[in-house]
Amino acid sequence: MDISVVIPLLNEAESLPELSEWILRVMKANSYSFEVIFVDDGSSDTSWEVIESLNKSNSSLKGMRFRRNYGKSAALHVAFEAAQGDVVITMDADLQDSPDEIPGLYNMIVNDNFHIVSGWKKKRYDPVSKTLPTKFFNGVTRRISGIGLHDFNCGLKAYKKEVVKSIEVYGEMHRYIPVIAKWAGFPRIGEKVVQHQERKYGYSKFGLERFVNGFLDLMTITFVSKFGKRPMHFFGLMGTLVFFVGFLAAAGLGLEKLYLVYHHLPARLLTQRPSFFIALTTMVIGTMLFLAGFIGELISRNSPIRNNYLIERKIGVS
């Protein structure tokens, strides 16, 4: 099978018939073998009934339904597990992503050998309250991840099958699939300028809180990717440095007290000096950080996925 189109959705009953017809038209024009997987993320409207009707008219239009709303990452995860196409293309169900972009994305994966191609909605039809935070969010993500994409959160993306079968998307990590894939060993990440269309039906399901959650998720991915299997390298180093700073401060106070006493100069008790307690607290924090790294190492060594490495090719071995 050439292509699996994955479409997570929530309360998009009005747009589904038009979107399906559009996708079928593109697939037929390019003679692709394909499947379309709709994932109903707990819709309260008639979205599932529409999906059932579409499947009856064309078996290539498939569906999965959650009992309740779990979020876009969960929808993508179950669809990635089910996808059979050599290239997996994701898009939103609100008609703001154009199916006419599918051939271009497919060719970049197949002919240009990208692992991932992400859409870039260079010209957007969103209010300023959404576009400005999005630009800031993308800029921070580029800086931290080292991936030169302009639009990390664009729902229109294409993946090699091996990518979606090798990564796990959970929580709200769908924004950072390129980052997750890069750390999993899929560095060839491209970008394609795609058409962004005005929303025709319904309303956006995302609020401004997604930017706060998105930043926290980025910190999580960055930390877990770098130190998930070696927590002592982070906590141990930080703990040692913090403890050393506290120890030097405490030693300095002690030496100062000895100097004053030796020269018969007035000297306050160390326990009457706030700086002594600051130094002591710093040493305690450093010790706690070091112990956190040690405990993390113990957990990591007993994890069933501690040696979960992806082997791309083999030669001469079974």
Walk me through this protein's architecture.
This protein is an alpha/beta fold. The protein has 2 domains: 3-227, Spore Coat Polysaccharide Biosynthesis Protein SpsA, Chain A; 232-301. The protein contains 10 helices and 7 strands. It has helices at 16-30, 47-57, 72-82, 102-110, 128-145, 161-164, 177-183, 209-227, 232-262, 274-301, and strands spanning 3-9, 34-40, 61-65, 87-90, 116-120, 157-160, 189-193. It has a 7-stranded mixed beta sheet with strand order 3-2-1-4-6-5-7, sandwiched between helices. Strand 1, helix 1 (16-30) and strand 2 form a beta-alpha-beta unit. Helix 9 (232-262) packs antiparallel against helix 10. The chain is elongated, with a radius of gyration of 27 Å. The protein starts with a strand and ends in a 17-residue tail after the last helix. The model has no long low-confidence stretch (mean pLDDT 85).
Strand order of the largest sheet: 3-2-1-4-6-5-7
Q: Look at the helices and sheets and give the structural class.
A: alpha/beta
Order of helices and strands: EHEHEHEHEHEHHEHHH
Could you name the CATH topology of the largest domain? Spore Coat Polysaccharide Biosynthesis Protein SpsA, Chain A
Q: Note the total helix count.
A: 10
Query: If you compute it from the alpha carbons, what radius of gyration comes out, rounded to the nearest whole angstrom?
Result: 27 Å
The major sheet is characterized as: 7 strands, mixed
Give the tally of structural domains. 2
Tell me, what is the CATH class of the largest domain?
Answer: Alpha Beta
CATH architecture of the largest domain: Alpha-Beta Complex
Q: CATH homologous superfamily name of the largest domain?
A: Spore Coat Polysaccharide Biosynthesis Protein SpsA, Chain A
Percentage of residues in strands: 5-15%
Helix content: 40-55%
Average pLDDT works out at 85
Q: Please report the total strand number as a whole number.
A: 7
